[in-house]
Design a protein that fits this description.
The protein is α/β, with parallel strands linked by helices. The chain has two domains: 295 residues, Rossmann fold (3-Layer(aba) Sandwich), CATH 3.40.50.720; 108 residues, Dihydrodipicolinate Reductase, domain 2, CATH 3.30.360. Helix content is 38%, strand content 16%. It is built from 16 helices and eleven strands. The structure holds nicotinamide-adenine-dinucleotide.
Length: 439
Amino acid sequence: MSRQEPVKIAPAEGKLGVLIPGIGAVSTTFIAGVEAIKQGLALPVGSLTQMATIRLGKRTEGRSPYIRDFVPLAGLNDLVFGGWDIYEDTAFEAAKNAAVLETALLEQVREPLSALKPMKAVFEQEYVKRITGPNVKTEGTKFDKAQALIEDIRNFKSETGASRLVMVWCGSTEVFHRSSEVHQSLASFEEAMKRNDPEIAPSQIYAYASLMSGVPFANGAPNLTHDIPVLLDLARERNIPICGKDFKTGQTFMKTLLAPGLKSRMLGVHGWFSTNILGNRDGEVLEDPGSFKSKEETKLSVLDQILQPDLYPDLYAKLYHAVRINYYPPRGDSKEGWDNIDIFGWLGYPMQIKIDFLCRDSILAAPLVLDLVLFLDLAQRAGMKGIQEWLSFYFKAPMTAPGLYPEHDIFIQLMKLKNTLRWMRGEDLITHLGLEYYD
Ligand SMILES: NC(=O)c1ccc[n+]([C@@H]2O[C@H](COP(=O)([O-])OP(=O)(O)OC[C@H]3O[C@@H](n4cnc5c(N)ncnc54)[C@H](O)[C@@H]3O)[C@@H](O)[C@H]2O)c1
């Protein structure tokens, strides 16, 4: 494949402000981690932008720079953090409550974390049923609250001196709802906010405020949020990159590793039963059937798309797939996810695979937040707008253009991500054809 002209990318000058609705387990593990890494206390394990290399040219050329040296990313020292939460706890207190990181490590990053005091949240009990807190905006309509968020964003930018911003939703999972009439156009959306229409979720008000402020937006939860016509249009019209939904971390990460492998060998699957126990606040929120429904939808969608039962009815048409999550406080953030997979091989002979993943939810999610922040900022400086499908790698339910099915296979997602970076820099795309080595 011939080389492209490199894409023009504005330099990563100045500070990059990271704005986060939801100062909870994931976001504080991310922020504390960045501060610890800056001090040389730990390594950014799990982050492609910090640890991964990218092969360029032929295998014989020996060119494999770090991604961070290949594309102009913001540096960790340039990141400044802010956010909103319904609780008044500073990021330090929230990190202590979340109990993901050890106290000894947290003490070493106490100062920057204590300085992060969450701004008042836009919150609605109807959308997150199991928690309630005092740090919320109560004045005016949803439209007024959106204006207050826009004001928060403006103030954060001027107080920190950030030259660019990115917003990542790390708030609780909202109840399942579908796109409706009010989500179609800017006029209907703003009108609905002015009359406090219940169809407008708090996360949508943040996404609207972000886009109206020209700030790229990622959604780490399964909520509908910006996956609605009005906000998709707004992102394109205003040249803002967006992505989502729902960080791909524990069990679904495993699923998207294993399912492509089984399919690649044309092995059949009769059933895939997944169950989880977790005891953090996320687990508590997911006890509510409405919030669980949002999660279930994104978790279930993965297998169907990877296994393509329509193309392979003999292997996958009868697949029984179930996902359960149980709140179990003793485990805290240390989730345990079990998978029982009933597969079959040659002549239909049955076999079983069991996975018992004793993972740490926020430890898996934190590097994803970092990569998304840096890549979304890169995309904006490269003039890329709307849904960033190349960032599907990070999500359980990747957003795609209307009518396009999402790609869930993690290896295809990684190839797409790296080819997008090669394309940005005018390098050959790698197809893995490789015939030239044998000419
Ligand atoms: N950890 C993972 O591996 C993982 C994977 C995929 C998705 N997620 C999602 O990421 C999100 C964060 O997870 P977590 O473990 O940090 O949860 P958490 O409960 O520790 O933190 C979420 C925070 O959001 C706050 N919040 C809720 N509604 C808000 C609003 N409207 N405005 C501002 N703040 C609000 C809550 O008070 C809470 O402090 C959840 O939606 C979770 O489902 C996490």
